[in-house]
């Protein structure tokens, strides 16, 4: 049987997934705006409009033919919009479905005080958006248990890639070197989100996997390294405690952890960009760093 994929929320990561597909693999996906149809079509994705709470007849028809489902939409105050709209179709009208992948966040772990954690760590999310993500993860896992379907939960760290990186920020003057002593973050290149999804989908593997790099590092180090490659002066260091930040930007610094990716490596996946140094160097050399960069996760 020909594999057919449907992507709910065909944003930045899902388009990278589509661009990495084996030749001829049919992929359809949703966007909230008809203006994005051209972008999706350029990535080889048949576009559909979806903003909830119901599915169009076109989406229903596409789902009935789909073998693999990828969810990259954010949950809201009323839960996961895809589950609310599509649960009955998934249960009753998708006879060929064999695997579901859900893109989540390492934010579900909350703060670990800089310690190393893996998928066995207790989830103690601190932000509302991460609480919603954890609830959505559990809802998808419950559906998988109900219908006997492998559900892969991919917990992503900070996403970067073409159009979304320190080079772009340095070029447009928005790069900052915020310093909070002891603070580190993991990151993940969008190519490895796509690669991990294809790897898990090909093998129809379920479970929870941290999709994150090998080198959690202070954010100011990433900016300095990009500036060194570009041959420009990095912006001056700024004290986090006195910097003017939005509440959301400041909230990211409230979580400090080092996230292990050993579980997905144990399935046989090998990261294309194991750390920010390798990724930035590669993007600068091949000129891909400017990219497109728009869209959601």
Describe this structure in words.
- By secondary structure, the protein is α/β, with parallel strands linked by helices.
- Helices cover 37% and strands 17% of the residues.
- The chain is built from eleven helices and 13 strands.
- The strands form four sheets. Strands 3-2-1-4-5-7-11 form a seven-stranded parallel beta sheet, with helices on both faces.
- Helix 4 links the parallel strand 4 (68-71) and strand 5 (99-105).
Span of the ends, CA to CA: 30 Å
Beta fraction: 15-25%
User: Which overall shape is indicated by the principal axes computed on the Cα atoms?
Assistant: globular
SS field, number of helical segments: 11
SSE string, helix = H, strand = E? EHEHEHEHEEHEEHEEHEHEHEHH
Provide the structure class.
alpha/beta
């Amino acid at each position: 049987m020909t594999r057919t994929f449907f992507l709910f929320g065909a944003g930045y990561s899902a388009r990278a997934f589509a661009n990495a597909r084996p030749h001829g693999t049919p992929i359809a996906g949703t966007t909230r705006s008809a203006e994005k149809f051209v972008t999706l079509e350029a990535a080889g994705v048949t576009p559909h409009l979806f903003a909830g709470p119901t599915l169009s007849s076109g989406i229903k028809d596409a789902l009935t033919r789909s073998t693999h489902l990828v969810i990259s939409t954010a949950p809201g105050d009323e839960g996961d919009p895809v589950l609310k709209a599509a649960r009955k179709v998934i249960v009753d009208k998708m006879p060929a479905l064999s695997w579901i992948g859900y893109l989540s966040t390492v934010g579900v772990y909350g703060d670990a005080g800089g310690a190393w954690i893996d998928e066995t760590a207790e989830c103690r999310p601190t932000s509302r958006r991460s609480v919603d993500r954890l609830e959505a993860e559990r809802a998808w896992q419950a559906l998988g248990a109900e219908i006997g379907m492998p559900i892969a939960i991919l917990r992503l760290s900070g996403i970067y890639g073409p159009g979304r990186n320190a080079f772009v920020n340095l070029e447009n003057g928005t790069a900052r070197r915020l310093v909070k002593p002891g603070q580190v973050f993991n990151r993940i290149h969008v190519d490895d989100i796509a690669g991990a999804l294809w790897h898990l989908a090909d093998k129809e593997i379920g479970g929870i996997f941290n999709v994150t790099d090998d080198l959690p590092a202070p954010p100011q180090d990433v900016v300095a390294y990009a500036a060194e490659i570009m041959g420009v002066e990095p912006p001056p260091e700024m004290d986090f405690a006195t910097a003017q930040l939005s509440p959301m930007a400041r909230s990211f610094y409230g979580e400090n952890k080092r996230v292990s990716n050993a579980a997905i490596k144990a399935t046989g996946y090998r990261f294309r960009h194991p750390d920010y140094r390798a990724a930035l160097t590669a993007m600068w050399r091949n000129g891909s760093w400017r990219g497109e960069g728009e869209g959601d996760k």
